[in-house]
Structure formats: structure tokens, C-alpha cells
Amino acid sequence: MKIPFNIDLKEKVVVVTGGGGVLCGVFAKALSKCGAKIAVLDLNKENAQRVADEINNDGGTAIGVAGNVLDKESLNKAKAIVNEKLGTCDILINGAGGNHPKGTTTKEYLNIEDLEKNDEIITFYDLDPKGIEFVFNLNFLGTLIPTQIFSKDMLEKEDSVVINISSMNSFVPLTKIPAYSGAKAAVSNFTKWLAVHMSKVEIRVNAIAPGFFLTNQNRGLLTNEDGSFKPRAEKILSHTPMDRFGEPEDLVGTLLWLVDKNSSGFVNGTVIPVDGGFSAYSGV
Ligand code: NAD
């Protein structure tokens, strides 16, 4: 892959959670291009290994590591592997996250007639606390727990960085997905809290809030089987002044800027939207 500019990450060890996924796979490759050694950590070991193999085949250094961001024991095991094979962690990208259908309403607005038992429509009243808990845990605890584990390596170093992945819905909630919106708001809030908490030990903490990227997670919500856009996708585009969905590569410049002390050494506790203007546009 091509990166927009180079930063010097030689000898740096990066852990990317959710690295087997679409956006974080691209992050892992971009950071490798800058010379970092990459631990691609994912619940899905196969996908993590696939991304690591692609990096190694391209001349980089990477390992695929199985790890569950909600399980301290699993992360401690992953950390032991990273430390043995690559060294101690300098940069943590908290990318694992996502939504769940059980935390999602079928419709944008509540209609009284939908309350008549209709199994096909999930109203606000049908939202399953277990589904909501899943989404809160994955996004919020799934950011906090890996930071507890991997930032320990950073305490004796300079220039360490944590990057969290938030979302548009952390600023203003999106319809249908109250759990995911609330959980990403918590990720943005935690980013600020952690930046302050870690400021005396020289760990900078920032977040990227991607706009709308067509990936596995949201493809079903946004496109029909033939690839055409659903009304929700059309609505997103009509609220995106730049008139398109993002490509994962659109995030790379912001990632490299936030990681590089020379570029962003005084940037701390921020949540940077990369959204084609979506969050700036009132719709009028
Ligand atoms: P993705 O589904 O392709 O990647 C997520 C990865 O996380 C997957 O590989 C999955 O196996 C892994 N994962 C899930 N649960 C895990 C766990 N418990 N432990 C470890 N790994 C786990 O998703 P993506 O679209 O690339 O999203 C990456 C991040 O960006 C997520 O935090 C997502 O919420 C956020 N995001 C995505 C978009 C978008 O438009 N796609 C927009 C805003 C924010």
C-alpha cells in the first residue's frame, strides 16, 4: 500500500487490536510501511495471521496474535507473545469494536402501531439488555482493558501513544443504534480521561472518529444484495458534503500524524473526525 507521507517508526512495536478487520488491517500495514514491528491482535486468529502474512510478504515484520479484548488473561498471554517475539509495546491502536443487531432498532422513529406484536420489527422496547451490554463491553471495555495491559510496557519509555477508534455517533447519536452510539461516546470520553491521567508518564492518547466507510460491519445496513444503496446509505451521502463514503486509506494520514511525536507532540486528548464534513453539516 501507498502511504501519504513517511514517519520514522523504526524499532517501535505496535499492537493493533481488531487488526484482522478492514480498517485496522490497513492501519497495521501503514504503520509497518513506516518501519514499525506490528502485532496484529484479533479474536479471529486466522484473519490476524492473514494480515501479518501480507505485511511480512511485503517486507515488513509482523505477527498474528489471538486475543480477546474483553479477557485480561487472553491479553496477558498475547502480551507475553508480543514481548518475546517483537519487544515491548510503544504504540497501541484500540481498533476492535462494533455493533450488534440486538442493540439496534428496526426503525428510526417509534410508531405506536409497531408495538402490536410483530416479530419482524425491533422497537425500542424490544432492545435486549444482553445485546446492549455486548456492544458497550466490546467498544468501551474493549478499549480500556487492552490499554491496562499494553500501556504497562510504555511506562518506562518516551513517545508512547494510544490511539482509540471512536465514531461519528459519539458526537451526535445515529438513529437505530443507541448502544453503539453510547458506547462510542464513552470511548471518546475515555480518550480525554486517559490523556489527562497518562500525561505525567508521557503517554499521549487521542482518538480518530471515522465517518462512514463501507465495511463488513455496516454493508448489510447500507447496501442491498445487488450492491445498490439502501435509503440509509443515500441519507448518509446526502449529509456528507463531500458526497462519498470514506476509503480506509482516507484515515491513514490522520493516524500517522497522531502517532508521530514530531508532528503532533502537543496534541493530546482529542477526537479527530475523518468524515468528509458529515459532523460539520447541519443538513441545511
Ligand atoms: P471490522 O469488523 O472489519 O473489524 C473489527 C475487528 O475486531 C474484527 O477483525 C473482529 O474479529 C475484531 N474483534 C471483534 N471482537 C473482538 C474481541 N472481543 N477481541 C479482539 N478482536 C475482536 O470493522 P471495521 O469496520 O474495520 O472497524 C474497526 C473499528 O472502527 C471499530 O472499532 C469500529 O467500531 C470503528 N468504526 C468503523 C466505521 C466504519 O464505517 N466501518 C466507522 C466508525 C468507526
UniProtKB/TrEMBL annotation:
GO molecular function annotations of the record? oxidoreductase activity, acting on the CH-OH group of donors, NAD or NADP as acceptor
Q: Does the keyword Ribosomal protein apply?
A: no
Record Gene3D superfamilies: NAD(P)-binding Rossmann-like Domain
Q: Does the keyword Oxidoreductase apply?
A: yes
Q: Which GO terms describe its biological process?
A: carbohydrate metabolic process
Q: Which UniProt keywords apply?
A: Oxidoreductase
Q: Which Pfam families match?
A: adh_short
Q: Can you tell me which family this protein belongs to?
A: Belongs to the short-chain dehydrogenases/reductases (SDR) family.
Specify the protein name: NAD(P)-dependent dehydrogenase, short-chain alcohol dehydrogenase family
Species: Maledivibacter halophilus
